[in-house]
Amino acid sequence: MDKLSKDFLLGAATAAHQVEGNNTNSDCWAMEHMKNTSYAEPSLDAVDHYNRYEEDIRLMAGTGLNAYRFSVEWARIEPSEGVFDEKEIQHYRNVIDCCLANGLEPIVTLHHFSSPKWIISKGGWEAESVVEDFARYARYVGEQLGDKLHYVCTINEANMGIQVAAIAKRYMIQMMARAAQAAGNAGNGGNAQAGDSASNGAGGKANAQAGADTGDGKVQMGINLEKMMAGRAAAAAENKEVFGVEQPQNFTSPRTEAGDLLIMKAHLAAKAALKEVCPGVKVGLTLSLHDVQTAEGGEDNARKEWEEEFTHYLPYILEDDFLGVQNYTRTEIGPDGALPTPEGAELTQMDYEFYPEALEHVIRRVAKEFHGDLIVTENGVATSDDSRRVEFIRRALNGVQNCIADGLPVKGYMYWSLLDNFEWQKGYSMTFGLIAVDRSTQTRYPKESLTYLGSRR
């Protein structure tokens, strides 16, 4: 087993809302507690990382890990517009100090999906005002914490909304095809069998692929797309009551092209603010990137897929100090778009294909066009079998080492995630963690995969 160099950043990642608990001023907390919610369950205390971060950091350090990527929560730090909570910024200063005392490099993310509720009431991530609001927040964090940091990610998976929009579009096409098929069956006396239509044109193809697409295996976060789409009408009145708008534009809502550009503007504004108050900090963002593979006849579609997922962001990130690469699986593209997962492939709890080789492929492709440093800010697997997690990490890190051996500037690898945690709309059913948690007592149970990851240094 080859070891990574001592200066390589090897660690794990979390997001504040998924692990801290009681993030009561955020949009996610509000949505979790709505009657018409697409969340399987509320986050509540989560895994109480807010109070138990010292224990969790010591567990990482004890295995030999030397980095921790985590997010600071905007909704805690600025619970109402223009009002900053000194107690909360001190909390994150304490987390950073704990990392440094235990030999871990803190890699801080300013925004990881959850936003202050007041941001959504102003129009959310489709409102021009979000650019100035995010920059003000970034400046404050930089002023308060920048002297202790070397790396800051402004926005986690800046392309997530575009990915959700693409899947929502496919979902609507599938639903229309199903409706047309049902109408056709009724017109034919009900003799046609739904299952028989799988090889009979677009309607059958949409039906066959519905599980792959609306099962959320094509988007790298925990969403319940079908429930999201089906409940929109019923939720409108409640949204108006909770947020003051009928269609909240959360960070992970289906994104328009204009909203996509606003996110890039917010990144650039935040980076400028950070560079002004703490010029020594390296600043970048992270992107959710699939290993886009081309099946016969899918060349044009695959090129468009990669352009949408990565290439069109290049003008806004080429001057960044680093790029956070986040990858979990591959996507095969054919003449009609994304193909179903190959027959017989091993699937994870998230319905992703178990394919750790995807990471090396993505790093190599990204490095052809982005020439700054690369940090793998997320890569992992949701599984109840920790031996498969160890195997996933082994193969993924072997791919990272292949890239380093070929001279690619890969500076770190953060496994997702440190703890079994709240996987957004899917609740606590997905187990990505290196550490299991009994949420009835909040007792930590480190897995063999944590020891294995630390042993690679």
Protein model, in words:
- The chain is of the alpha/beta class and 457 residues long.
- It has one domain (9-161, 249-455): Glycosidases (TIM Barrel), CATH 3.20.20.
- 44% of the residues lie in helices and 14% in strands.
- It has helices spanning 16-19, 27-32, 49-63, 74-77, 86-101, 117-121, 129-145, 160-187, 202-214, 225-230, 232-243, 257-277, 299-309, 314-317, 358-367, 386-405, 448-455, and strands at 9-13, 67-71, 105-111, 151-155, 282-288, 291-294, 322-326, 330-334, 337-338, 373-378, 410-416, 435-438, 443-446.
- The strands form three sheets. An eight-stranded parallel β-barrel has the order 1-2-3-4-5-7-10-11, surrounded by four helices.
- Strand 10 (373-378), helix 16 and strand 11 form a beta-alpha-beta unit.
- Helix 3 crosses helix 17 (448-455).
- The chain starts with 8 loop residues before the first strand and ends with a helix.
- Residues 190-215 have low confidence and may be disordered.
Topology diagram in text:
Elements lengths: L8 E5 L2 H4 L7 H6 L16 H15 L3 E5 L2 H4 L8 H16 L3 E7 L5 H5 L7 H17 L5 E5 L4 H28 L14 H13 L10 H6 L1 H12 L13 H21 L4 E7 L2 E4 L4 H11 L4 H4 L4 E5 L3 E5 L2 E2 L19 H10 L5 E6 L7 H20 L4 E7 L18 E4 L4 E4 L1 H8 L2
Parallel strand pairs: 1-2, 1-11, 2-3, 3-4, 4-5, 5-7, 6-8, 7-10, 10-11
Antiparallel strand pairs: 8-9, 12-13
Helix pairs in contact: 3-5, 3-17, 7-12, 8-9, 15-16, 16-17
